[in-house]
Amino acid sequence: MIYSMTAFSRYEIIKNNCNIIWQLRSVNHKYLEISINLPDQIKHLEQVISKKIKKNIFRGKLDCNLYIYCIEKNQDHILINKILINQLVKLILKIKNKIDFGIINFIDLLKWPGVVIKQNVNNINEALILKHFECTLDKLLEFRLFEGEELRKIVEKKLFSINLELNKLSANLITYLKEYRKKLNNKIREINVKYDTNRLEQEIAIIISKTDINEEIDRISIHIKRFFDILNSERLVGMKLNFILQEMIRESNTIASKAININIIKSAIEIKILTEQIREQIQNIE
């Protein structure tokens, strides 16, 4: 199965006057990088959550956020530490007597650690929180799998297009060599000179060897077959496919450098374009 590294999932539930929201977002990354943001009261769950993620996801940058909004009866939704506010204001006024730095910004005061008191989430069952996390993770994996299968279709379509260009290359190469041999023989007849038939064949063979691209065509065909095998049999394929694409680009460059026929050059360029397009797609494959 092919998994994309780009996905998003959200799970929300209301329980015991609390709104619990899990959000998971993943993007492409060379390795696995996990960022977990939990309320202070349940920070100890980070390790458990990290292990669950690592069992299911192996590459990508993943942001995991839990939001809990609790509203208790006869209590404000947001609590302010008035004692700390008073202490901060007194300290600011004391400094202000020595250095005039303008008007006090109370919004900045609210950002001070401990001023805004987070609601107590001890009444939330941790097992319930973990259960809903697993539901969110399952949704993320489903999304990654769906996107991965869509990427597979795009990549396979472009691989088939490359195969068509390889067939064109083989046909054009045979036609070109026949035309070249015929053209060379006609040229010799026009100038009406004696020539050594064996020497002529040797010269033709040398030219053919310099312009022969059969080896490159065969190697690209082998790479494509390996590409299909990996797509259909493995999970972690992104890095392997990227390596194969580098080899395919190298072979297409060699074909373009050897070719002296416009049709062969066109096919070589088309193969390189298709390969680059595939490489863009697999940047998101796990």
Automatic annotation (TrEMBL):
Statement: the UniProt record of this protein carries the keyword Acetylation: no
GO molecular function per UniProt: hydrolase activity; RNA endonuclease activity
Cofactor(s) this protein requires: a divalent metal cation
Endoribonuclease YicC-like C-terminal domain segment(s): 176-286
Keywords from the UniProt entry: Endonuclease, Hydrolase, Nuclease
InterPro entries: YicC-like_C, YicC-like_N, YicC/YloC-like
Residue ranges occupied by any Endoribonuclease YicC-like N-terminal domain in the UniProt entry: 2-152
A Pfam family: YicC-like_C
Highest rank taxon of the organism: Bacteria
The keyword Hydrolase is assigned to this record: yes
Family stated for the protein in its record: Belongs to the YicC/YloC family.
Protein name, entry field: YicC family protein
Species of origin: Wigglesworthia glossinidia endosymbiont of Glossina morsitans morsitans (Yale colony)
